[in-house]
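Hi there, hope your week has been kind to you so far. Would you mind checking whether the tokens look sensible for this chain? I owe you a coffee for this, so here goes:
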Amino acid sequence: VQLQASGGGLVQAGGFLRLSCAASGDILTFKNMGWYRQVLGGQREMVATITTGGSTVYADPVRGRFTISRDNAKNTLYLQMNGLKPEDTAVYYCQGLTIHNFNRWGPGTLVTVSS
């Protein structure tokens, strides 16, 4: 199952974006899915994760502003990002962890927040 993220772009501080990650097959292949981000020269960091049961975990910098969700019927993962800040600027990647504990990554989508 391949993952493809979309929805990135340029937005002003305080604005919002919704990222989508479409899976080429059954999203239930993944027991856990998440969004990660990486700035140029930095390490990839977890933004938010969600299990098949809907349990979520958020990184402290985004808690209360971002919401992760998954639509199993549409085989799609989402990240609603509100109240964006310049420090949210990064390439965002969607990730899926299979039931056999293999990680799958999609190509990133760039989010740029201007001040």
